[in-house]
């Protein structure tokens, strides 16, 4: 293995003076990258340091270098450097000592960065799907397509987000990689070694926006204190949503945070301190009100949730696919609406066994999202740099793929239906219940086939109606995803070795069928599945 | 359509094998495929045989495996956004053909098929609990959720299709 340092520039427009999700994300990603022993992280700051809650934690990492924004501009406005100034700064740093990767967060920054040739080929465009932008707007799709096309990788938070991005933006297929949020590993300094004890305490940490129904949580506190007079609601964070012309929501919330009995408002607190508070025990609330936010939030996992898990407290949270992935579908504290949380809090306060079971599930879940584990997911892209096709093919197989047999052809020649029939007949001798999928490479420049009108479907001519349901013809413009749906790859003779290598990397079973002699030309048409 | 005999009904269908057999016995079925339903349905329409209803069940494979990953929920580009299903429903909607989603009595049907169900004019739920859960889906914009009086028997559903679609509030009521 090379000992050459891997230089990574990490930038997010988050203001690290604030303790909010997007700034904590910067700390988590820096820690994740730092888990790679050869990785050196350069982290330009958007704003001058006024509070050092996060930056001090970053300075403790020996291979993370913070870059003062005054290096770019003598007088930095309170809002921080403008995007063009940030990109100028990154270009200057790259010119001095080239980066291997530039991890750049936010849609607008990435859109601007792709116009800079020096940055483009090492750009990891990160979290460019933003809930407030319309992914069905053709103009926005065109911009996302431009970013995906020009970036080395597109980085998303979760498998669900990758599926959404690759479904919407064909240019991102095969180059979208996952960088999940992450937390310190169990056993490291300051990390609890087990679950927190039951205690009559509720927690919320984060920003104050109608999407996070903190006023409703205060209602819960008031109601529950009639039954549990010692109950406290500990609230962490200081960013209150006050849009121009409508300050009432924020003003009223702030008043309630300051004056409601039982509410303990800590303001901004460093992440380590948040964990320390949580480990005293209690119940964390991670509730969303969909009337005030995008359902795209369902596809992501927040660092905050992982912090709750790490501290070993039970979390009451919305049921989403991504959160089910972490905690399991049968985790007992999922809700659909904020109001469903109240009876669950009552149950937890009354039932220590339920508290312990839920807390243990949360605590165990955090391990999978530790910095070293998250870094392992990046190793192929940062360190190894082998054939990326193999890594992309090796994404997890989907349920149901076992009965799908696939073969990928370069051609849509007239003999393909006959070949399909022979393949089907041969395959069914081995497994009667199979579905044969014949993937065909798209014509150059053809793009994704229109729904219901796949050009490959004309190969269907010649398939008898009684077998039609067992065969699909598909123009495959995204072989990396396609292989995830195929359980068995068909090999014919010695042809298509490249395809077989990729099929094997995908975990597909390889079955050799002897039809090459029967179908002249078939062997010559087998191609590399990811080519 | 309300007065048509079930045997005369033309259904564009996506269903797993058992349900497909029941539907084929009860009415005239076109089992559409994701790769060529446009040509098939347009040819049928030109021949005077346009479907009366699009009926999709909570099928994992769908028409012999042709719709695998396109109806139920998977973190996969084929599944996300339900591109194929949306296009099929849209084609039907443009022609005034109502779309029905029949959620079968299987565990977690709302979780696994909720994103698909919300695209349809009418969702037939297996029980009241599932009906409530379908109605509460945040993206829901279809017209109605019903528990068919005939229960999960798809043959009976076909026989009462006219009545189900004619219920006030169901889009494109027959």
Radius of gyration of chain B: 15 Å
Strand content of chain B: 5-15%
Return the average pLDDT of chain B rounded to an integer.
86
Whole-Å distance between the termini of chain A?
28 Å
Q: Work out the largest interface and the residue count of each chain.
A: A-B, 42 and 37 residues
Mean pLDDT of chain A: 87
Amount of beta strand of chain A: 15-25%
Structural class of chain A, by secondary structure, is alpha/beta
**Outline of chain B:** globular
Our measurement of the CA-to-CA distance between the termini of chain B, rounded to an integer number of angstroms, reads 6 Å
How many helices of chain A? The count is 21
**How does the helix and strand content of chain B classify structurally?**
alpha/beta
Count of helical regions of chain B: 7
The H/E string of chain B reads EHEHEHEHEHEHH
The beta-strand count of chain B equals 6
Strand order of the largest sheet of chain A: 3-2-1-4-5-6-7
- Proportion of helical residues of chain A: 25-40%
Strands of chain A, count: 18
Parts with pLDDT < 50 across at least 5 consecutive residues of chain B: none
Poorly predicted regions of chain A: 525-531
Largest sheet of chain A: 7 strands, parallel
What does this structure look like?
The complex is a heterodimer of chains A (531) and B (174). Chain A has 531 residues and is of the alpha/beta class. Chain A has helices at residues 21-34, 53-59, 83-96, 107-113, 117-120, 138-150, 159-168, 214-225, 248-259, 271-278, 303-311, 321-327, 341-350, 352-366, 371-384, 388-393, 416-430, 465-468, 479-483, 497-505, 522-525; strands spanning 6-11, 39-44, 64-67, 101-105, 123-126, 153-156, 176-178, 201-205, 232-236, 263-267, 283-286, 315-318, 334-335, 404-409, 435-440, 471-475, 488-491, 509-512. In chain A, strands 3-2-1-4-5-6-7 form a 7-stranded parallel beta sheet, sandwiched between helices. Chain A has a 6-stranded parallel beta sheet with strand order 10-9-8-11-12-13, sandwiched between helices. In chain A, helix 1 links the parallel strand 1 (6-11) and strand 2 (39-44). In chain A, helix 1 packs parallel to helix 2, helix 1 (21-34) packs across helix 15 and helix 10 (271-278) crosses helix 11. The radius of gyration of chain A is 26 Å and the shape is globular. In chain B, strands 2-1-3-4-5-6 form a 6-stranded parallel beta sheet, sandwiched between helices. Chain B has helices spanning 17-26, 37-46, 83-94, 109-117, 128-135, 154-159, 161-166; strands at residues 10-14, 28-31, 53-57, 99-102, 122-124, 144-146. With 174 residues, chain B is of the alpha/beta class. In chain B, 35% of the residues lie in helices and 14% in strands. Chain A binds chain B through residues 158-160, 162-164, 166-168, 173, 290, 295, 319, 321, 329, 336-337, 398-400, 403-404, 435, 449-454, 456-457, 460, 468-470, 472-474, 478, 481, 484-485, and chain B through 31, 33-39, 60-61, 63-66, 68-69, 73-81, 83-84, 86-88, 91, 108, 111, 133, 136, 138-139.
